[in-house]
Amino acid sequence: MSSPDASDLARINYETAKEEFEQGRYRQAVILLEQASALSERASPLGGDIQIWLVSAYQSVGDYPAAIRLCRQLSRHPNWATRQQSRRLLAILEAPRLASRPEWNVSIPDLTPTEVAQGSDRKGSNPRGGRRPPKPRPLREPDPIDPSQINRSDNQFVWFALISSLLILGALIGLS
């Protein structure tokens, strides 16, 4: 059993790791989740949650063998929800990789160094260092419709539908 101090530290590392993961800092999330896993009772529901997040973090940094190995261990976890989640993740991890051509992929460059350099050059800009939101454009009134352009010819379908509806309604009343 772990002491209450270790349990609290495990929960703090776990929550911090989730924030790091959601910010895209996967390597830092792996480190924090490994620490949280070592401090927690692995057979507990919290220990299972920590390890499930660790599987996702391993996958995000490209360490598929560690993710698969941990998923296989978790498929025998005492907590039913953890077992189910690990089996779902294992199916995804072991699925065959589809081949894709390079022109199908989009490469997103890492702009972190550029943003840091630009943030120090700006004075009086947005205090958070991000872009300012664009100003909303005023709504434009639609052009008025010229009444001479409206087709006012008789539509035979309306009469056909009205008469058909009346005949069907009359037949239903007659049958009842």
From TrEMBL:
Swiss-Prot/TrEMBL keywords: Membrane, Transmembrane, Transmembrane helix
Domain of life: Bacteria
Listed transmembrane segments: 157-175
Region span, Disordered: 109-149
Protein name: Tetratricopeptide repeat protein
Source organism of this protein record: Phormidium yuhuli AB48
